[in-house]
Amino acid sequence: MATVKRRKRPGWIAEFGWRHLVAVAVLVFGLVPILYVVSAAFNPKGTLSATSLLPTDFSLVSFDRLFSDPNIPFASWFANSLMIAVPAAFISILISSLAAYAFSRFRFRGRRPMLLFLLLIQMFPAFLSVVALYLIFGAIGEFYPVAGLNTKLGLMLVYMGGALGVSTWLMKGFFDTIPKELDEAATIDGASHAQIFFGMILPLAAPIIAISGILAFVGTMNDFILASLFLTDRPEMTLAVGLKTLTADNSPASYFGIFAAGTLLTSILTVAVFMSLQRYIVSGLTGGAVKG
């Protein structure tokens, strides 16, 4: 009787070990910059040359100087970022949701070319439009200074327009998954389009609204190119632009620790926004579904 040779199973390293190695490499690649920033933020000397990967001393002097140094208006930068990011994200999500609802539920002439045009715009990076935006808002500022260059309203309008395309596409795809029978049932009961949208569609679309809101808010808070172009006065700068000035060639060497402390506080805000909206991302898909 011939013996059947059993196929030798691959070893643990060949089957699972390489995945752990890749995971560890990615983890190290992501944690090293974070550890370096944390070390610099709590370094009492606050200089780049005196900062190591693992902190040797612990001090809060950089955080104290961040709020007490008269040459560093961190509170104004923080307030400027919130004054721009929060309204820009809210208004862009509201307009995007209305546009996505129209593209998803209605059929009208030019619907498909408009969707393709929105997709085409997203293929080009934002910095390609820097020169055009500078000229446009420079001309607007001559007639309406409140919305021109070096104004929060002008930068807010730019951020709102930049987030409309991707948010509309994301929401339109999500709205297509919501059964149209819900709209028809509500229409039979006498509901208007506004009642259907605000009372039925938006509660069901809470996850995609949360995702779009996070993308718009974080993108606005972290933007440097457009903010440095529009806001040049030091008290009017956003966090990204203001903190960048702390690492300029003419800045004191001790400002690097203050820069690290500011970036650490900014990242905490971003993580807090994500964690506060996490429950809407994970759940809520069937929050307003019809029970049958």
**Topology, number of strands:** 0
- Class of the largest domain, according to the CATH hierarchy? Mainly Alpha
Class by alpha and beta content = mainly alpha
The CATH architecture term of the largest domain is: Orthogonal Bundle
What's the CATH topology name of the largest domain?
Answer: MetI-like fold
Average of per-residue pLDDT values: 81
What percent strand?
under 5%
Provide the domain count: 2
Query: Count of helices?
Result: 13
Secondary structure: helix percent = 55-70%
| Helix and strand element order | HHHHHHHHHHHHH
Pfam family, one: BPD_transp_1
Family: Belongs to the binding-protein-dependent transport system permease family. MalFG subfamily.
InterPro entries: BP-dep_ABC_trans_perm (IPR050901), MetI-like (IPR000515), MetI-like_sf (IPR035906)
Transmembrane segments: 21-42, 77-103, 115-137, 157-175, 196-218, 253-275
Summarize the structure.
The protein is 68% helix and 0% strand. The chain has 292 residues and is an all-alpha fold.
What does it look like?
The chain has 13 helices and no strands. Helix 2 packs across helix 12 (255-276) and helix 6 runs antiparallel to helix 9 (206-222). It has two domains: 15-59, no CATH class; 68-282, MetI-like (MetI-like fold), CATH 1.10.3720.10. The chain has helices at 12-41, 61-68, 74-105, 111-122, 130-143, 152-175, 180-188, 193-204, 206-222, 225-230, 239-245, 255-276, 278-282. The termini are far apart. 68% of the residues lie in helices and 0% in strands. The longest helix is centred in the N-terminal third of the chain and has 32 residues, at 74-105. The model is unreliable at 284-292 (pLDDT under 50). The chain is mainly α. Belongs to the binding-protein-dependent transport system permease family. MalFG subfamily. Its main location: membrane. This is Carbohydrate ABC transporter membrane protein 2 (CUT1 family). Residues 78-277 form the ABC transmembrane type-1 domain. Keywords: Cell membrane, Membrane, Sugar transport, Transmembrane, Transmembrane helix, Transport.
